[in-house]
Each structure stands twice: as C-alpha cells, then as structure tokens.
Amino acid sequence: MAAITDEQVEAVRALVARIPPGRVATYGDIADAAELSSPRIVGWIMRTDSSDLPWHRVIGASGRPAPHLATRQLELLRAEGVLAVDGRVPLREVRHTF
C-alpha cells in the first residue's frame, strides 16, 4: 500500500464524522467519497485513528461487521435504531450517501 497522507486521513475522518446516527456507510463508500484507490486504506485509517469518531457506523460491503467488533458494533448501532438481521445490517435501508 502506498504511503497514506495526512490529507487522506483527514478526509476519511471528516466523512466518518458526517455519518448521522441511525445510518451507516461502507469502507468503499468512504473510499469513493474521499477519492481513495481502495477501501483498505479506509480500513487502515479506521484501525489507527478513529477512537474519537462514530467508527461503529462504518461497515463492510456485506453489511456484516468484522468478527472481532461484531458484538460491540451491532450493540452501538442497535442503540441508534439500526437493527441487524442475522448479524447483517440492511444496507438498502440505512446506507448513508455522501
């Protein structure tokens, strides 16, 4: 992966901060909006610099959270009214568009 710039980090952070309660965006949605070459860049940024952001509103394209985050992420989303079905968030209903 190419070096990630401060501008890219800030663009991702700003987009994640804009996702309203009760909505989600995928890593790919954020990568597209930030004009990044890969959703993996968003994943890396989220892993390293998102503790002060609504990280739980960012989900994989399948609608499933990462296994190591699933319980906590789905709990936080449920508190915002986002109900998962069989561990999958209904993206058609709750996907945020930038």
Automatic annotation (TrEMBL):
GO terms for biological process: DNA repair; methylation. GO terms for molecular function: methyltransferase activity. It comes from the Bacteria. Keywords: DNA damage, Methyltransferase, Transferase. Residues 10-82 form the Methylated-DNA-[protein]-cysteine S-methyltransferase DNA binding domain. The keyword Amino-acid biosynthesis does not apply. InterPro entries: ATL_DNA_repair, MethylDNA_cys_MeTrfase_DNA-bd, MethylDNA_cys_MeTrfase_DNAb, WH-like_DNA-bd_sf. CDD domains: ATase. This is DNA methyltransferase. It comes from Mycolicibacterium litorale.
